[in-house]
Amino acid sequence: MPEPGVFLIHGLGGTQYDLGSMHKRLKNAGFVTHALTLPGHGTTPEDLVRVKAEDWLEAVRVKYREIVQEHEVLHVMGMCMGSLLAVETVKRERHTKGQLVALAPPVYIDGWSTPWYRAARPLLYLVPGVADRMKVVEEDPFGIKNERLRSLVKAKFERGDNFHYGWVPLACIREVDRLRAMVMKGLDRIDCRTLVIHAREDELTSLRSANYLVENIGGGPRAGRARMVVLEDSYHMICVDNDREIVAKNVLEFFDASPAASLGMASTQSGMAAAEMAALLAAALSDLAAGDFAALYQRGIPDFAWFQPGANRTSGVHAGSKGRARLAGWAEGAAFGSFGAPSFNAGVVVVPATLSVGPLRSPGVLAFAMRTGKLIEARWFPDEVETEDRHFGGEAAPEGPSPAELAFEAAAKASRTLRKAPDNDTLLVLYALYKQGSIGDVEGDRPGLMDQVGRAKFDAWAKRKGMDRAQAMAAYVEQVESLQKAEA
Q1: Which of 178, 213, 321, 458 is packed most tightly, with the most Cβ within 10 A?
Q2: How far is CA 201 from its chain centroid?
């Protein structure tokens, strides 16, 4: 692939959402992202009991070898335990095709909130059966300094939402300790430039961890190979906490993305002539003047994202078909107008505008990122965010999937493990509910008479037109659960 790639590795007990919006930010900046689910993850904490550090490392190295030949440039980045796996993989594979980023690496588990038995762990490992039975529970502050976000995460744990393991067995921490020992050896063999980002107030691992990596990767004849960024307003989960924008900015700049990309916008090389950019801008503004967000999304890449600021029910990143469906929940009746003179800066266009919704008139600036004839993302910057917060009300949705979306994704995965295929009518119901839940109302033209299968799918989906996404997701989950019960 001509596009540079980034291999992202999640942390212990987590998922790709440990890295917040980094996947989207990297994609919007022109990178192809790759990820994996580590062994023992994505199911239940009990599945971690028998997993060894070598299992995690082998899974990462297998994925690395699978993708490294696809790119001329491939960067490797990990969060928490994922950063240890990234360091060890880069070391063992003698990676030179790109750069290494270690986010909050726990080389030492010595933060201010680590458990009382920290020093006694090696002794507990020697007691038969204790490491398998003892649970290390995720507790307040959950790695998050931002109080509003922390309260949302706490509520998710209390509800039992399956977004992150609420505990891990002590045996799993033993394997992390073994991985730490591996990482601390032979760091001078790392040949690529390295960036370590660490919070000064990290409750799990102190700055000693970051210092150790920088001094040993960049020491001696390799002086300057590694460098560090210290964050002043976050705890351990730096990709979602108060300093997340600083993290994204430094990562993108380290990967040689453009200044526009460091703000989450597209790369400087749009691959478009000035006239093409002007035509795409005119079409996008026409869509917004008509309040036609569906048409705007059609002019974008599949992961096109609309960024809505503030702390209200409309706020957040509305990406892809699911984002467009969420956007439709509040954007009805919304339109932009009073457009000013556009300012073109390589692949980014900035235009003064005014958002109108009912009695609200909110002036501000629209920013569009473009590449090769498509919109990559659009951002709205109102002059007074508080005015929109008062008008729309409510609270912004947390980053990552909602509980309903997690259940929906789990049901989709479960549907592929059924021992017996459902009958055709049931398959059509599943198809229609899945499309309505993931995208919304039916799209495209009805297939012709020669495509009876496509026609049947289209008609089944069309029957669900107008059905709320949340309702469709719930119905899909219920349908899959009933099939599982029937098999049982």
Answers
A1: 213
A2: 23
- Contact, 371 vs 293, CB < 8 A? no
Share of the chain above pLDDT 70, in %: 88
The CATH architecture annotation of domain 5-257 reads: 3-Layer(aba) Sandwich (3.40)
Pairing of strands 335-337, 300-308: unpaired
| Residue 187 three-state SS | helix
| CA 3, chain centre distance (Å) | 19
For 114, left (φ over 0), alpha (ψ -120 to 50), or beta? beta
Question: In this model, does residue 186 exceed pLDDT 70?
Answer: yes
- Cα(202)–Cα(206) distance, integer angstroms: 6
Q: Which residues pair with 360 in a beta bridge?
A: 357
* Residues contacting residue 179 through CB under 8 Å, at least 6 positions apart: 53, 56, 57, 81, 84, 85, 88
Compute CA distances 94 → 57, 68, 421, whole Å: 15, 12, 46
Q: Using pLDDT thresholds of 50, 70 and 90, give the confidence band for residue 310.
A: confident
Nearest to 415 by CA among 365, 333, 479, 460: 479
Q: Which residues fall within 8 angstroms of residue 304, CB to CB, at 6 or more apart?
A: 297, 319, 320, 374, 375, 376, 377, 378
State the chain's mean pLDDT as an integer. Answer: 83
Hey, which CATH number is domain 403-487, 1.20.80.10, 1.25.40.20, 2.60.40.10, 1.20.1080.10?
Answer: 1.20.80.10
Query: 111 falls in which pLDDT band (50, 70, 90)?
Result: confident
| Per-domain residue ranges of the chain | 5-257, 274-392, 403-487
Question: Looking at domain 274-392, which of 3.40.50.150, 3.40.50.40, 3.10.450.50, 3.40.50.1100 is its CATH number?
Answer: 3.10.450.50
- The pTM of the full predicted model, rounded to 2 decimals, is 0.56
- Sign of the Cα torsion 240, 245, 247, 249 reads positive
Contacts of 72 (CB under 8 A, 6+ apart): 1, 2, 4, 97
Return phi, psi of residue 473, to 5°.
-60, -45
CA angle 238, 100, 78 (to 5 degrees): 40
- Distance CA(181)–CA(440), nearest Å, equals 49
Residue 224 scores a pLDDT above 60:
yes
Helix, coil or strand: residue 440? coil
